[in-house]
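Lecture notes, continued. The same structure-token format from the folding unit now serves as the input rather than the output. Read the line below as a description of shape only.
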């Protein structure tokens, strides 16, 4: 009886916490379906009298949201491909290759995670300006195709694979790329999905860097376009919430489908040496 009571209390507590976390998203969606008068009513109304689906259509008419979506998708996909390639190759070198200063180099790489972004914003901007990459996809993609956290997670997973497997493949005549493609990557799906999730969220929600390196409206990603839209609309909350809902929904769908693999990755690779 005592054990059952404890479980009930724990479940009730977790349910309450979940409701608290979900409420802001529910409020955003409900506000997107309200009229302007309902969104600023006092006391606040939870449900709209008549759902205003036209708010979403108005957003599409007022701003080039499709263009913002396409820019964000291009940046997200290409950055993700770059992160997976660089993380796999770097993690393979740190796990299976013996070279002088390997562990020291890896620790130095991890130490770079302690450097805050504002420190390198100005030097990075100057470099991109000299390369004439400002207001291009290069500026939004190339600086982010290497991710230290992704290298760390991939390396931790590769360390769980016996070195003898790599040596056996070399004896059979397989090259390093063949070993990576046919052996490492097939058994690394959970960690790849986790890396993909982090990369997608980072690219999709990126705001400060694209704001600095882009000038024209045609190059704006979603978050920058949404910020300009917010300034233009002021306190028109239904339109703002409609735009926010459309921006965040792809990430929610992606996480729902990938959450099992994310948990498996942290359990199997993220906490092991």
């Amino acid at each position: 009886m005592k054990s059952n009571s404890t479980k009930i209390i724990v479940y009730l507590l977790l349910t309450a916490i979940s409701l608290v976390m979900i409420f802001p998203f529910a409020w955003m969606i409900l506000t997107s379906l309200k009229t302007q008068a309902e969104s600023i009513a006092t006391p606040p109304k939870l449900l709209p009298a008549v759902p205003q689906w036209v708010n979403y259509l108005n957003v599409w008419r007022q701003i080039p949201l499709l263009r913002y979506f396409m820019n964000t998708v291009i940046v997200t996909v290409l950055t993700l491909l770059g992160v997976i390639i660089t993380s796999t190759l770097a993690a393979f070198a740190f796990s299976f290759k013996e070279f002088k200063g390997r562990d020291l180099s890896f620790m130095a790489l991890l130490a770079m995670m302690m450097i805050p972004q504002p420190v390198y914003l100005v030097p990075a901007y100057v470099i991109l300006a000299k390369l004439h990459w400002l207001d291009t996809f290069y500026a939004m993609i190339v600086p982010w195709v290497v991710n230290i956290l992704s290298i760390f997670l991939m390396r931790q997973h590769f360390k769980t694979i016996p070195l003898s497997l790599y040596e056996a493949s070399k004896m059979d005549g397989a090259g390093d790329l063949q070993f990576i493609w046919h052996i490492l990557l097939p058994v690394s799906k959970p960690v790849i999905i986790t890396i993909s999730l982090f990369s997608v969220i980072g690219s999709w929600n990126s705001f400060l860097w694209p704001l600095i390196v882009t000038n024209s409206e045609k190059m704006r990603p979603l978050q920058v376009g949404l910020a300009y839209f917010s300034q233009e609309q002021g306190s028109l909350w239904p339109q703002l919430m409609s735009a926010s809902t459309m921006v965040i929904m792809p990430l929610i769908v992606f996480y729902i489908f990938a959450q099992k693999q994310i948990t498996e990755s942290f359990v199997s690779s993220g906490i092991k040496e």
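Point for the exam: DSSP finds 14 helices and no strands in the chain.
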